[in-house]
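Entry 14. Structure prediction run on the chain below.
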Amino acid sequence: MRNERLLEREPPVRAHATASLLRRTAVIMVKVGTKIEFNYGAMHPREHGVVTKVKDNIATIMVNAYGSDVGFTEEINLSCIRLLGETTVNGSGIGVFAV
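Output returned:
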C-alpha cells in the first residue's frame, strides 16, 4: 500500500533545472554568425550584434551601436547567453540573447 502511494506521486518540477537545460542548449547553438541581442532594460535601446569568434567558452561579438555603422566588440561567456524570450526567475527579460 505504501509503495503504491509513492508511485502515484509525481516528482516536483524544478524551475532551475529547466532553465539550466535551456542555458546548455543556448551554449550549444552559439557559433560564428549567430545573431545576438542585448537588452539592457528600460530607457536603453536594444543592441544587435553577430558572433565573430568562439574560443574557450567565450564568444566575441561585433555590436552595431544604436543601429549605426560604428560599433564595438564585446566578449561574453557562453553560459551568459540565453535563448530569445527566456526570462530570469523573477520574470526579467534583461540580458544577452541568441536570436
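Residues 15-29 form the longest helix (15 residues).
Filed with the rest of this week's runs.
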